[in-house]
Amino acid sequence: xxxxxxxxxxxxxxxxxxxxxxxxxxxxxxxxxxxxxxxxxxxxxxxxxxxxxxxxxxxxxxxxxxxxxxxxxxxxxxxxxxxxxxxxxxxxxxxxxxxxxxxxxxxxxxxxxxxxxxxxxxxxxxxxxxxxxxxxxxxxxxxxxxxxxxxxxxxxxxxxxxxxxxxxxxxxxxxxxxxxxxxxxxxxxxxxxxxxxxxxxxxxxxxxxxxxxxxxxxxxxxxxxxxxxxxxxxxxxxxxxxxxxxxxxxxxxxxxxxxxxxxxxxxxxxxxxxxxxxxxxxxxxxxxxxxxxxxxxxxxxxxxxxxxxxxxxxxxxxxxxxxxxxxxxxxxxxxxxxxxxxxxxxxxxxxxxxxxxxxxxxxxxxxxxxxxxxxxxxxxxxxxxxxxxxxxxxxxxxxxxxxxxxxxxxxxxxxxxxxxxxxxxxxxxxxxxxxxxxxxxxxxxxxxxxxxxxxxxxxxxxxxxxxxxxxxxxxxxxxxxxxxxxxxxxxxxxxxxxxxxxxxxxxxxxxxxxxxxxxxxxxxxxxxxxxxxxxxxxxxxxxxxxxxxxxxxxxxxxxxxxxxxxxxxxxxxxxxxxxxxxxx
Amino acid sequence: xxxxxxxxxxxxxxxxxxxxxxxxxxxxxxxxxxxxxxxxxxxxxxxxxxxxxxxxxxxxxxxxxxxxxxxxxxxxxxxxxxxxxxxxxxxxxxxxxxxxxxxxxxxxxxxxxxxxxxxxxxxxxxxxxxxxxxxxxxxxxxxxxxxxxxxxxxxxxxxxxxxxxxxxxxxxxxxxxxxxxxxxxxxxx
Lengths: 584, 189
Ligand SMILES: Cc1ncc(C[n+]2csc(CCOP(=O)(O)OP(=O)(O)O)c2C)c(N)n1
Ligand SMILES: [Mg+2]
What we know:
By secondary structure, chain A is α/β, with parallel strands linked by helices. In chain A, strand 12, helix 13 and strand 13 (300-305) form a beta-alpha-beta unit. The two termini of chain B are 37 Å apart.
């Protein structure tokens, strides 16, 4: 006989069975029975965030830095609607999270009851899948399914909506092992014939490039190891999207740096001029391709992706390979070795010569002169002073995010957490909280802009309460810098509402929460100030006052191809045509 | 041919094997989607079409397996070959979707739609309506002294043609079910 259990007890039991250690949440009327169960146990830790959006971003940070599923628990109505931005963010970046929402009792659904919202309706387009559970007997099986769906195939957010009467009622608990998940089993291995075609093409290619993305990270650490092996075997150059940084080490000699709108000159020109593009777990996002019609016009393209709908969605490819990156790279390496394939050394030597010429442009160079800190300089120093540490970086969204991607080096996967697809200001601080929960002894730094940071600054309370020594490294330009940059380039320097007016005194703000605040404005003081931040055992808000009008380069203006990159301020005049101006 | 000896766009594994992938020609396709009959599944399918800007010309749905709780959704949609491929891939991503069939490319198929027509009129018009209904093998399912309700099944084109003929004869109301379709012949595998 199975033990009868309340729905609320089942929730906690199911989380334990799934190996969940941390839940990020916020209580309310519709989840009180579950909170009561959480109160009566010690295995699962609950982190009380200060806003439900932050709960989801924290769960994302937790998931991205561990490879495990991140879990949130929020109440009905406003709790659920506050979670929507986080869900959409996780959907766009393929992050596995499970969000549990309370719902009004089943008999009240549809009556506009207090704090009722059509949660499954609202979140249907921003989850991979969602469920409304109306029967306590089905609750545990649904929860186990939810974890399976979140993590299988292309990962993503799922939501389980649990009415309050379902939480109170008794029902049968179905253990994890007994749940049938056979229907949803995305394919893992790629088509062997296409993989063999790709291997042969790789042996002939004269100007190949690996274009890697978040799929390599999501596939697990083994995928990154295999990518490194394949790079070693072939000697091909490697570039990556914003999402894929760390899969191939920044110190690797074949590393070209990030590609895309603010990617490196050598990376983008290699993409433009290659004859064989090997896309591994990236999705030809518009930040990468620029103008589609002129995107890498002369290359044969292979695309490895676990999601069939990514294939041919925006760029038509010649060798589509549907499968998990780890499996496909194993297959590809096996074919390469079995057939005794060798790269085209002659062609490659010429290709690397060309790439080295592009590298000489030194597209990330900047001048740190005078008494004002350049944001690039701040990040260079941060990199230098933190690189030996067990370090995790999160970011907010804007110029600082792009500079962080350009100037910080990532040697390993799961060390870089940024909102790529949705570009969510307010992501970085709560994400850093989630990362620090997973890695209590690590150095976790959120590289922030002052405007983004204010969007979820209430999480200072969470960081203090749970003794999470997260470092908030704010590049304060007193501007919505990225918006200002676009206004300068596209809207005749009419800076409509892109000032950060009435900013708080960040040091006092930190102190008001009991945290440490540091302000730095002089380049000469920067190193000491950063060291003070690193050495402080507790949350730090670092207000780094930087040059206010610095623009982020290189930049491919919207609507332009890769070879029309702007390298610096001098090249910006009339760079963006009317057509480009309508693009985002 | 590219220098890599791969004829571009013609990989034998390409999703576009059969048709020109660059074609701008708008094609009409009939898709059969087998789904778990669970709450919200139709909203997921329809939401996909509206959210991603695809067309729905007609849509029918009903449970086809009461013990397995499976429903079959038949969708008639329009788009370029690339868009049609994308629609199928996106449908395949929905968790409760089990099968996606493109009846338009998977071989010969039969398509049928059922419609009800209310035609009001007296005298010659009434007689003519009845005569045409007979030619179209439409059944009279309701009659009053001043009106008929005809039931007709056939291809959407046949029903369109019948509607055209009824219009001058006093067509008052129409209800159409949308297309149901099946591939012809014996099921493989
Ligand atoms: C929630 C949200 N609202 C608006 C935007 C549009 N946006 C992109 S960058 C940016 C400015 C960010 O300013 P700040 O955080 O100070 O970063 P900076 O660019 O100055 O480094 C804005 C408003 C966004 N990405 N997210
Ligand atoms: Mg700013």
